């Protein structure tokens, strides 16, 4: 029996579990995208600013931002340029690496991500918090963190 097959009628396949998780995420993301919470920043721009906010020193190399984003590196580079033009981020050289560049959250970027973040958290609390009991939210977090953490130990499929 392969990993994707049902072991019994009660146990969903990995594919069914993934599809359910993915579709739930899409449904919530679509609602968030329609919400008037973003102000002067798009959902994707907020994601980049938030990622910088939670990093040590509120900065990251472009490739580090790309690793946590759904954007391609060229799209992310253009977004960083636009955010820099709006003084929400700035680029700085990496100490001890003449070729490296850090993207750094500015004070204006910090104020914006904090303001939008409060509204974003309220929306998440409504859409997720009202749908799940506290124990279910805890279980969801445990499962999604386990799934994400395991990816480094699972080999890529060899395609011939």
TrEMBL record:
The keyword DNA-binding is assigned to this record: yes
Residues of the HTH marR-type domain: 18-149
Domain of life assignment: Bacteria
UniProt KW keywords: DNA-binding
One term of GO molecular function: DNA-binding transcription factor activity
UniProt key word DNA-binding: yes
Gene3D superfamilies: Winged helix-like DNA-binding domain superfamily/Winged helix DNA-binding domain
BP-aspect Gene Ontology terms: response to stress
Protein name per its UniProtKB record: DNA-binding MarR family transcriptional regulator
Organism: Luteimicrobium subarcticum
